[in-house]
Amino acid sequence: MIETFETVAKAVVDPSRVRILKLLENGELCVCQITAVLGLATATISKHLAALKVAGLLQQRRDGKWVYYRLAERPLNAYAPQFLALVRASLADDPTIVEDHRLLAMVNEVPVQALCDQGRDALAIQPPHPTESTRQHPCPIP
Amino acid sequence: MIETFETVAKAVVDPSRVRILKLLENGELCVCQITAVLGLATATISKHLAALKVAGLLQQRRDGKWVYYRLAERPLNAYAPQFLALVRASLADDPTIVEDHRLLAMVNEVPVQALCDQGRDALAIQPPHPTESTRQHPCPIP
DNA sequence: TTCTCAATTAGCTGTGCGGCAAAATGATAC
DNA sequence: GTATCATTTTGCCGCACAGCTAATTGAGAA
């Protein structure tokens, strides 16, 4: 009861886990995709994903050598849906979340294989949609 | 943004703080009343109350030498109302919460002054509404 | 079978925090 | 003014956990 509630609540306390949940609102993602966006060690991401899964917030699917995670669409415990709804209704305009989604858009332009090989570097050669924040200053100061 | 969210979420992670929130759903309570129900050190309760207040979940009122806390009825930050609603909709049948409410009923039978003087012992001499769990066994085994 | 490699697990370190006792605070009573 | 006393703050201890690197796992490729 209260232990289950605590487990789910704990999953939502950590900023990294909230960022993962917000990313997955757009659909399932491979572990290396999440890793590329968050910029943390693969082991750390994996541990977070395990915690979110235990809390009943995520589900898992294997495809070849990659593992995809998605938001749990079926209530795996009494509190998961309510917390998911709360997160979904929150933080859409948070700077970190916005930046994560921008990186996610870039990640989606790259084949998963490239991400697994090069990690975040796979994004560096992918500026086809320049935005205000990524656009180079015309006269960079040395 | 996400820091505020984290602060409120953190307040809901700890079981003791959830128990306090559930107690206050019935109306405001004095610090020593909460202490008597939870059975923790006064300093610990005070720290929890401060955290809940900082998170925008509680408000404070002084009456004589006692301080009363109540659920924040006006949104003090963007996420407090949603978390309060989630807690309110949860754990009504949790054993710990049920027991807390039973103790709260006993606490309400005792003047606040008695609680401050004797703490939880003030409840021992107050069995006017015997329940299954408090009723004495007719032939106590020595 | 053996090799490869994405993902997980194990082991470690530093930090955050819940619990308590003791000291400080501050409003009320005298 | 001083004393009392509910509450808060401080200082400390032990534990839980986020992060990392290194080792292990296990599914697909050869």
Q: Which architecture of chain A does the CATH hierarchy give at level 2?
A: Orthogonal Bundle
First-last Cα distance of chain A: 60 Å
Order of helices and strands of chain A: HHEHHEEHHHH
What would CATH call the homologous superfamily of chain A?
Answer: Winged helix-like DNA-binding domain superfamily/Winged helix DNA-binding domain
Biggest β-sheet description of chain A: 3 strands, antiparallel
Number of helices of chain A: 8
**Percent helix of chain A:** 40-55%
* Protein structure class of chain A: mainly alpha
Strand content of chain A: 5-15%
Low-confidence runs of chain A (pLDDT<50, min 5 residues)?
125-142
Regarding quaternary structure, what we see is homodimer
Strand tally of chain A is 3
Outline of chain A: globular
CATH-derived topology of chain A: Arc Repressor Mutant, subunit A
User: Which radius of gyration of chain A do the C-alpha atoms yield?
Assistant: 17 Å
Topology readout:
Two copies of one chain form a homodimer.
Chain A: H1 2-13, H2 15-24, E1 29-30, H3 31-38, H4 42-54, E2 58-63, E3 66-71, H5 80-88, H6 95-107, H7 112-118, H8 121-124
Antiparallel strand pairs in A: 1-3, 2-3
Helix pairs in contact in A: 3-6
The structure holds a DNA duplex (30 and 30 nucleotides).
